[in-house]
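Risk register update: the risk of archive-format incompatibility is retired. Evidence:
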Amino acid sequence: MQPVDVRILGIVEYTDAEEMMSVLQKQRIDDEIPDTILFLQHPEIVTVGPRAQNDGIAPPSDYRSHPVDRGGGLTWHGPGQLVVYPIIHWNKDDEKSVADIISKIESWVIAALDTLGIKGYRDERMQGVWVDDKKICSIGLSFLRWVSRHGFTINYDTPQGRVENLAGCGLAEATTTSLAELGHSLSKTEIELALISKIQEFLQRDVRNDTYSG
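Archived output:
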């Protein structure tokens, strides 16, 4: 089973993470590093994907924003949200399409939440993971030579109203929320450990190490 490095990085400015992802993606393409998964958080910012840019959708003026090249529309980042960036060369038999990879990530998140007593599921309205008719996990990837950049978010205890007040990707305001708003009290560490515990089963990769820095 091929190895994967897990790096738990704490709070990282979005533009710094963007640069980090680009460097790691090139290193992974050149086989200088193994598959790598970053766990981190961002100060508040809304990333604006090509779908939102093409549709002329922008966040409200009181949200800091930044354009990105991953799939999807508007995605909120900030306190109380875990961000996961898989810098992975998707080369297995069940990773032949973007849809396959999105489905695999959804299954991974759903299984991790299940270990924490939370029932997550897919919803035809939008890719990602939903709980109690609300979206709590958004997924948006970018690929180069089948190595991914960007990734997914899990809202566990975001500031009241900040995610809920943001509309985009065809979803109405208040469709996206946090686990805390749904009555689930979880820490970032609990979610990280749940995800790490399911990497081998759902990504078919062996966690080589997990590095804490911040």
